Amino acid sequence: MRISALLKDFKVLTVFSIVLIGLLSFKTGDKTIVVSKDGKGNFTTVQQAIDAVENGSASETKIIIKAGVYKEKITIPETRGAIFMEGENPENTVITYDDFASKKNQEGKEIGTTGSSTIFIYSNDFTAKNITFENSSGKIGQAVAVLTTGDRIVFDNCRFLGNQDTLYLKGAQDLADKSKPSRNYFKDCYIEGTTDYIFGAGTAVFENCTVYSKEGASYVTAASTPQGQAFGFVFIHSKIIGNATQNSVYLGRPWRPFAKTVYINCEMNATIRPEGWHNWSKPDAEKTTFYGEFNSKGTGANASKRVSWSHQLTREEQKKYTADSILKGSDHWNIRKTLQ
């Protein structure tokens, strides 16, 4: 009997050990994690998969997200290792939540613009592909879909859905050290919104993207580029369009006085106001911002009507506005390699 009991205890211990080793395996080495709402993957929520990624791992963790609508608020801590998150396609792999800035928390205080985000990306070396990120709260003021402060962030064939403040490239906005890099690259993406729907202090390149001003829209960008930072937001070969009222949308306004926003070879439809840019009722900002265009095309691209303090770049000046040169940085980040 005693031997039988010992064997039984040994079997229980062995099963427990196998389960424990299986769980620990998600915390080590190069791996792929599958998220599926039907329970056929490793996890049923995206946050569970994020929590399983090893802190500081040098090897990339791939998170495959099966088709479905994942209503959850996601945080990727600064300490997480490299992550490549891939959906099946942006139409049927959707991460959504419905927080908004004036919503009250448990203490009765407003969560604020920052707190409203559907996903917070604080880590470096994050890539997302074929996913929709949405704030579904509606037209209820500031409501962020994606917030980034990390560095070397890539979005490939993704959608960003919302209204006011859809995409918050926060960067070093609240840091004493404004030199901390926060580089973001958007390729073949769709971004929609109404007011300041691309904003923040980060450096970002939008290449071959569609930027869509919805009905009632007013401003596309509100950069808060730190003083001395070489680049803010740069749109390259993108479409700046929408269904907002004709001549109702500004290309940008300065959230902070050294805002930088440039459009290179972009198509602009009739939603764009002839003057192009707004000073946010800050006349002094006209001396410190840098707003520029090169070879804008379409009914919203009348260079002769732009405000006098904006810039029409020469062919020579526009040469530095390539994704590679803007995002390279002191670490020689190769975005093409990241996209492979």
From TrEMBL:
May I have one GO cellular component term? Answer: cell outer membrane
Under which pathway is this protein filed? Answer: Glycan metabolism; pectin degradation; 2-dehydro-3-deoxy-D-gluconate from pectin: step 1/5
Q: Any idea of its EC number?
A: 3.1.1.11
Set out the biological process GO terms recorded for this chain's protein. cell wall modification; pectin catabolic process
The molecular function terms in GO held by this entry are:
pectinesterase activity
Domain of life, per UniProt, equals Bacteria
Question: Where would one find coiled-coil regions in this protein?
Answer: none
SUPFAM superfamilies the record matches: Pectin lyase-like (SSF51126)
Which PROSITE patterns does the entry mention?
A: PECTINESTERASE_2
User: Pfam families attached here?
Assistant: Pectinesterase (PF01095)
For this protein, the record's InterPro entries field holds:
Pectin_lyas_fold, Pectin_lyase_fold/virulence, Pectinesterase_Asp_AS, Pectinesterase_cat
Q: Specify the enzyme's EC class, one word.
A: hydrolase
Q: Which residues form the Pectinesterase catalytic domain?
A: 33-329
> Which residue positions are annotated as catalytic?
196
Enzymatic reactions: [(1->4)-alpha-D-galacturonosyl methyl ester](n) + n H2O = [(1->4)-alpha-D-galacturonosyl](n) + n methanol + n H(+)
Keywords for this protein: Aspartyl esterase, Hydrolase
Q: Which family does it belong to?
A: Belongs to the pectinesterase family.
Recorded protein name is Pectinesterase
Q: Which organism is it from?
A: Chryseobacterium carnipullorum
Lineage of the species this protein comes from: Bacteria, Pseudomonadati, Bacteroidota, Flavobacteriia, Flavobacteriales
Primary gene name: pemA_2
